[in-house]
UniProtKB/TrEMBL annotation:
Any Gene Ontology CC annotation: plasma membrane
Family: Belongs to the ATPase B chain family.
Keyword field contains Transmembrane helix: yes
Function as written in the Swiss-Prot or TrEMBL entry: Component of the F(0) channel, it forms part of the peripheral stalk, linking F(1) to F(0).
Subunit composition and interactions: F-type ATPases have 2 components, F(1) - the catalytic core - and F(0) - the membrane proton channel. F(1) has five subunits: alpha(3), beta(3), gamma(1), delta(1), epsilon(1). F(0) has three main subunits: a(1), b(2) and c(10-14). The alpha and beta chains form an alternating ring which encloses part of the gamma chain. F(1) is attached to F(0) by a central stalk formed by the gamma and epsilon chains, while a peripheral stalk is formed by the delta and b chains.
Regions that span the bilayer: 6-24
Coiled coil: 36-118
Gene name of the encoded protein: atpF
One Gene Ontology MF term: proton-transporting ATP synthase activity, rotational mechanism
Protein name: ATP synthase subunit b
Membrane topology: Single-pass membrane protein
Localization per Swiss-Prot or TrEMBL: Cell membrane; Endomembrane system
Keyword annotations of the record: ATP synthesis, Cell membrane, CF(0), Coiled coil, Hydrogen ion transport, Ion transport, Membrane, Transmembrane, Transmembrane helix, Transport
Keyword ATP-binding: no
Length: 168
């Protein structure tokens, strides 16, 4: 069996290993760890920036949707206002047309009434003229009852004809 011996080679090798470890830790593991930590911080910073950008994008999307809803409501209000104004204009035009029609009808009725009065006056003056002529004829003839009866019938016939022509 071999017994473990401590000699100077072993001690030097252990010292070499410790020095190598310390050198590696100082010049290799330390900088690599620092680089890894920096990289870790950069990645965390980028993730944080990405989350902030995502939140901003979501906020902008929400604001856009709100503006879109407001625009839709505004367009509906404008359309409704237009419809109401068109309806008011239509009602006003109908009312104006009705007033104008009533005015035209009233004027026509007044014209008809005036024409009727004129026709009645004309008939009355004609009848009066015929009555005067008949009276003059009766007084002028002094005569016979049969002549008076004939004259009366002629008078009625002429008065009837005058009345028939004026009523048409």
């Amino acid at each position: 069996m071999k017994v473990l011996r401590l000699d100077w080679n072993l001690v030097l090798e252990i010292i070499n290993m410790i020095v190598l470890y310390l050198l590696m830790k100082k010049f290799l593991i330390g900088p690599v760890t620092a680089i890894m930590e920096k990289r870790q911080e950069t990645i965390e910073q980028q993730l944080s920036n990405a989350e902030d950008a995502n939140k901003q994008a979501l906020d902008l999307k929400e604001q856009y949707e709100i503006k879109l809803e407001k625009a839709d409501e505004t367009s509906k209000e404008i359309v409704n206002k237009g419809k109401q104004e068109a309806k008011k204009l239509e009602e006003q035009m109908l009312e104006d047309a009705k007033k104008q029609a009533e005015r035209i009808i009233k004027e026509a009725e007044e014209t008809v009434a005036l024409e009727r009065k004129k026709a009645v006056r004309d008939m009355e003056s004609e009848i009066a003229g015929l009555a005067m002529a008949a009276a003059a004829k009766i007084l002028g003839e002094n005569g016979k009852e049969s002549d008076n009866r004939d004259f009366y019938e002629q008078f009625l016939a002429k008065a009837g004809e005058s009345n028939d022509t004026n009523s048409n």
